[in-house]
Structure formats: C-alpha cells, structure tokens
Amino acid sequence: TDMDLICIGCGSHLQTTDKDKAGYTPKSALDKGIESGELYCQRCFRLRHYNEIVPVELTDDDFRRLLSQIQDTDALIVYVIDLFDFNGSLIPGLHRFVGDNPVMIVGNKEDIFPKSIKRSKMKEWVKQQAHANGLRPIDVQLTSAKNNHQVEELLHQIERYRKGRDVYVVGVTNVGKSTLINQMIKMQNGVDNVITTSRFPGTTLDRIEIPFDEHSNLIDTPGIIHNDQMAHVLAAQDLKYIAPQKTIKPKVFQLNDNQTLFMGALARFDYTNSVGPVTTYFENNLNIHRTKLSNADDFYDRHAGELLVPPTAENFKDLPELVSHSFRTERKTDVVFEGLGWITVHGGASITAWAPKGISVITRPALI
Ligand code: GDP
Q: Tell me, what's the pLDDT at 23?
C-alpha cells in the first residue's frame, strides 16, 4: 500500500519492504500497530521491548541533510554522551558539522559511578576527552536521566545558553538520549513520555520537533549508530549482565606478578612486572575470574562461554576475537574497557588489556 505512516519512536517513514533500511516493520506488525495506534518500526519496537539494538542504514543523503541542517541553523547543540563509554559515544566529525553553534556536553549515566569519585574530576575528564577530539564545549553537565538526577539543573543551564534559540539534541544510540529528552520535556511542559506517546506533524527521518516553549523547539535527531559499542557486539540477553543499572561496587584483587583477570569472556587483564592491589569497576554481577598468566590462553579456550560468561556459549561464536593493548603504568591509572568498566592500577606495572575487536581500551589518570 502507498502509506505515509511514521514511527513514533524515531520518526522514520514506515515501510515493509527493506529490512535493512530505516522504518522497516513487518506487514503483520504494521497492521497491529495501526489497530492499536502504537506505530513503531521494528527497530524501535525491539528497543522498547527487549532493549535490543538493530543497526539501520541511514543513506548518505539522509545523513548529509541532517548534518547540513545543523550547520545552517542558529541553535544550541546538546551533545549527550554515555560517561561509561566515551569513545562509543563519539559522533565522527561532530566538531565540523555543528558549524559555529555552541555545544554543551551532557555526560549521562552518572549514577553508575561511585559517589567517591569527585564529579568535578569527571567533568574535567570529559572536557579533556572532548578537546582531544576537537570539540570545545561551552559547558559540561553530568546527569542521570534514568533517576532524573541533575536534569532540572541541566534545563537551567540550557535556558542560560540557548538565549531563546532552538535546542538540537544529538547523540549516538544507547547513551540515554530518549530517556533524557522525556525527562526534560516532562519537567518543562508537563508532557509525559513525549518521544514514545506523541506524534508531531512534520516528523521525518531526520528530526522530531518538540515544542519547548512558545517560540522554540527542542529537536531530537536520530540516534547515530556507532558500531564500536559493547551494545553492538553483544546479544540483548548478555547485555543486561554488563550494563550497570546501579552504582558500581568496586572490588579489590591482590594480584601477584603474572596473573590474569577475566571479565566473563569479554575482556582480559594481564598484570606483569608488579605485585599489589588492583580495583575493578564492573557491573556488580559480572563474573571476574583470576588465573595464572601462563595458563590464561588455554583457560580461555576451554572455558569461554561456560565458566567465563557472558557471553553464553550460544552467543560466544558471534563475539569478535579479543585484541590486546599493552600499557606501562607509572602511577595510579584507570585501564578502561569502554562500555564495560575499568580497572584501577595503583602504581607501576606492565598491563596487557584485551577487549573484543572494535572496542576501545584506553588509560586515564585514576578518577579516584
Ligand atoms: P537512546 O538510544 O540514546 O535514546 O537511549 P535510551 O534512552 O533508549 O537508553 C538506553 C539505555 O540506557 C536504556 O537501557 C536506559 O534504561 C539506559 N539509561 C538511560 N539513561 C540512563 C542513566 O542515566 N543511567 C543508567 N544507568 N542507565 C540509563
């Protein structure tokens, strides 16, 4: 049929023909959706119901249109990142396509970080990372969209910086952009769950305009898919064991020289030329296993997907192979497996850190 129906999740035009393109929904689901008034594309439906990430192709033209739109506008850009996955939150070329517009960075999922980490230190770290990627944010705010923490403060800051202009919210998928927008609009306009329950005239693939006040809009842009995220290398069932829902409780391991820690079968940490404590920060239920370095390869081959989970045996075959990254630490350093967690090394040591191909491993001066 010749339809022009729009997904209430992402604003794509719904279509039933091309599985890999935006807006795809199976015909049967579409009919049900029309009946119930809940029109989602398959991707948004899965995101809502199973928190499953399904990549979708934006055509280059769609993408260029989106980017040039931002360049040509006079607006405040609110760039939402996942504090737990800075590299996985990067939008390639963002600093170019924002043009002269001011960018404010929102570091979301602040609730995952222990209270003992100074928020000022985290902001400083975000600023440094931003600078290293060519961005000069006018400000950095930390929020927990899920717990509605610091969202009101964020709104105050947005009011201050936008000076009556529109606000473009940008971010890759899974950083909590929808949750944050819903919270902000609820606070600002009293409208609940704006992104999933309302449809706005003129929504297209590239933007959803939400009235912000009488004269301006908040514009939700599509979540850009960043393939180098844990969320993309893991199946939905496994993701819930690694994505922290609550504040991480640090664990201390007294390591001997030449010992290895396995974080499920997802990451590996080899500790050499040193003896002493390391502190791990991962989802509280993630299974951490210690072995001798000399046994580690063999141990992994025999136990990945069984003793070492996630991922489970069934999903292990789809996991990209682990790739090693070597570092020498001199002082207290965090070795960060992006999107998974980090290990604080308390002094000098030689470290080889392994993560699935595509997932970044970085070091930073310890946050604590
Ligand atoms: P979007 O793809 O950027 O729009 O992200 P969503 O709003 O759909 O959120 C992605 C996932 O992150 C969901 O599982 C949310 O529950 C979770 N999430 C969102 N905000 C927060 C937060 O502040 N803290 C934590 N721990 N999780 C969050």
A: 87
What is the average pLDDT across 196-210? 51
The residues spanned by each domain of the chain are 1-55, 60-226, 232-365
Q: To test ligand 1's pocket by mutation, which of 143, 169, 174 has the most ligand atoms within 8 angstroms of CB?
A: 174
* Cβ atoms of 25 and 210 closer than 8 Å: no
**CA gap 109, 143 in Å, rounded:** 6
Residue 351: strand, helix, or coil: strand
Does position 328 have pLDDT exceeding 80, yes or no?
yes
Q: How many CA atoms lie within 13 A of 128 on its CB side?
A: 9
148 dihedral zone (left: phi>0; alpha: psi -120 to 50; beta): left
**Is ipTM beyond 0.90?**
yes
In the chain the first and final C-alpha atoms are separated, in Å, by 59
> Residue 82 Cα, ligand 1 centroid: separation in angstroms?
9
Averaged pLDDT score across all residues of the chain: 88
pLDDT in tens, 157-186: 999 999 999 999 988 888 999 899 999 989
CA of 154 to the centre of ligand 1 (A): 17
**179 CA from centroid of ligand 1 (Å):** 6
Ligand 1 centre and the CA of 296: distance in Å? 34
Radius of gyration of the chain (CA): 22
Q: Return the pLDDT at 38.
A: 78
∠ CA(200), CA(145), CA(282), 5° rounding?
135
What is the pTM for the complete model shown?
0.82
Atom of ligand 1 at shortest range from CA of 144: 23
In CATH terms, the superfamily for domain 60-226 is P-loop containing nucleotide triphosphate hydrolases (3.40.50.300)
Tell which one of 79, 109, 179 to mutate to probe ligand 1, the residue whose CB is within 8 A of the most ligand atoms.
179
Kindly give, in sequence order, each residue whose CB lies less than 8 Å from that of residue 39, ignoring residues fewer than 6 positions away: 5, 6, 7, 8, 14, 30, 33, 199
Q: Is the pLDDT of residue 51 over 50?
A: no
Average pLDDT (30-37) is 83
